[in-house]
C-alpha cells in the first residue's frame, strides 16, 4: 500500500504532481483517440470488410491483455515513474507504425505492440494516480480518467480536421507522436519519484485475493456495459430505433459526453456520499439507462438512457482502480494488473456477446441482458466492502 502523506519528502507541491499525472492521462488518451479517429481511413486503404476489420481490431485488446501481468510486475520491480515514461514513449513511438502498415499482417503486428505499450502506460499511470490520491487524502482518481475522456474528444476533433484536409494517417500519427513524446519529456521531472517499496522478487502474476476479485468483478460488469456502448450504440440507433443517418451517432455522443462530465463530478460526489454509495448509484444508473433504451425504442428516450449509462460507468473503473491501488496484500502495480485482468475481460466479451445474443434473439434482448450487469455492479458494491 502507498504511504505518501502531505508532509512527506516530496520536492514539489502536491498540485504539481497532480497536474503532471493528469497530463500523462491526457497524453495516453490522445494516442488512443488518434488511432481510433483514423480507423475508417485505414480500413479503406487496406480494403478490409467490416468483418475483417472487427477481427483485426481485436489485436489491440489482445496485446493489452497479454501485457497485463508483465506491466504489473515491471511497475512493482522498477517503479511507476520509469514505466510511465517508458510506456508513453513506446505508445507514441508505435503509433506511426499503424500508418506505415500497408498490409493486414503488418497492421496486426503493429496493433499488438500498440496494445502492449498501451497497457504498460495504463497500469503505471494509474499507479501514479493512486500515489497522488494518497498525497491528497481524498478521492481524485475520477478526475484523472476525465482527462483521458477529454483527450478522446480532442483526438476525434483533430482526426476530423486531418481527414477533411486529406492528411495521410502516417503524417497525422507522426505529428501526434511528436506531441506526446514532447509532453512526456515535460512532465517526467514532476511525476511521483517512488511508489510503495519496490519488490525485486515480485511475481509476474498473482491470483487476486477475495477483495481484489470482487473489485475485478465490479470492473468486469461495468466494462461489459462500457464496451457494449462503444461498439454497439450506433448499431442500436440504426437497426432498432431506425434513426435517420445523421442521428445514428447521437447515442454514442450522448454516452461519451456524460461519461466525461461524470468523471469530473464523481470525486466530489464520492467524498460527499462515500465510495460504496457512489458505486451502487452508478450501477443503478447503468441499468436504468439501458432499460429506458429497451422499453422506449425511440431516439429521445434512448438518448436520455444512453446519457444515464455514461454517467453510471464514469466512476466505476476509477473507484475500482483506486481501491485496488490501496490493497494491503500486494503492491499497487500488481494489484492493479490483477484487477484489470478480470475487469478487462468484460470489455472484450461485451461486444461479441451482444452480437451472439442478438443473432439468436434481438438487439433489444441483448441490451436487456447488459442492463443486468448494471444491477450486478450495484449488488457487488456492498459485498466488495469499498468504503
Automatic annotation (TrEMBL):
GO terms for molecular function: transmembrane transporter activity. The chain crosses the membrane at residues 16-36, 56-75, 82-100, 106-125, 146-164, 170-191, 212-235, 247-266, 278-296, 302-321, 333-354, 360-381. It is found in: Membrane. It comes from the Bacteria. Keywords: Membrane, Transmembrane, Transmembrane helix. Gene3D superfamilies: MFS general substrate transporter like domains (1.20.1250.20). GO terms for cellular component: membrane. Pfam families: MFS_1. InterPro entries: MFS (IPR011701), MFS_dom (IPR020846), MFS_trans_sf (IPR036259), MFS_Transporter (IPR051788). Coiled coil: none annotated. The keyword Membrane applies. It is a multi-pass membrane protein. Residues 211-387 form the Major facilitator superfamily (MFS) profile domain. This is MFS transporter. It comes from Hymenobacter wooponensis. The lineage of its organism: Bacteria, Pseudomonadati, Bacteroidota, Cytophagia, Cytophagales.
